[in-house]
Amino acid sequence: MNVLFVGATFTRLLPVLQEKLPAHQVRTCSREELPAALAGTEVLVPPGLTVDEEMLRAAGPQLKMIQQWGVGVDGIDLEAATRAGVCVCNVPAAGSGNAESVAEMALLLMLALARRFTLALDNVKKRRFCSPQGKTLWQKTACVIGLGSVGRAVLQRLAPFGMTLIGVNRSWKDDFKSLPLGEFYLLSAWDNGLAKADFIIFCLALNQDTESFFSGREFSLLKPGACLVNVARGALVDKAALLAALRDRRLGGVGLDVFWQEPPDPGDELFNYPQVLATPHVGGVTDASLLGIMAEVCANVSRLESGLQPRYCLNRTGLNT
User: Fold this and answer.
1) Active-site amino acid positions
2) For the whole model, what pTM was predicted?
3) What is the pLDDT of residue 308?
């Protein structure tokens, strides 16, 4: 099959990808080269790209599958893909190394904010010792929003820190009983949980119902000095409301691995605030997730070639009607 991976990362990985898919024609291109490279593509791997009806038309009838490199498909028009007869697949985060890696990033950001890590590094250079004073995670309260694979992994890793853990989800599931939760709230009625939190960790999927759901009202409920950590999607948080909270110095810190526009503008006002700690969407970029996701992607290409149903097809029902 003719398989096209989009992005500079895959250019570096091309020899490995060709080794994993020896029976297939494997190509890579940059985002800018994509329009010209689409011709003849049967499997498209477009992480971080918007795949809309126009792109699907440009790809033509040869395109059989869009295989996301990871779990998030918020940039892919599922309805348009279904109309075009294109299967859209992802790789579930749990067990692939992705959820586990993103959960570790959430902990890294929490610890760095709590211990004022960037200021501590600066103080070494200035020979200022025993400063700054930080705060522990121990005996603090963390509110994890979204109890999918990443949210569950975060909770499991926070439990040994001796924190009080609050879970928030759009619905209750019986298997939440096995999680180390002190309290649970539905997203539609979570004000009390939010008001108790020292740390709020966003692990929620982005869709039309959750876009900018954390806005002015939610910021007004936070206790002074609360820290926000977002390892999910930037657009979950209303940016204007976040900037207002930073200007008013109501937040103890903000840890971001995701943004409203990626890559973000280095001159963005957001980066003027010392409370903001940012990393370039590397939560899932680890050795384990690379190998785990690659194995699933390559297996799906082989399944498609063999006439088998690809795993984790998100629009299978529509394609079968």
Assistant:
1) 233, 262, 281
2) 0.86
3) 93
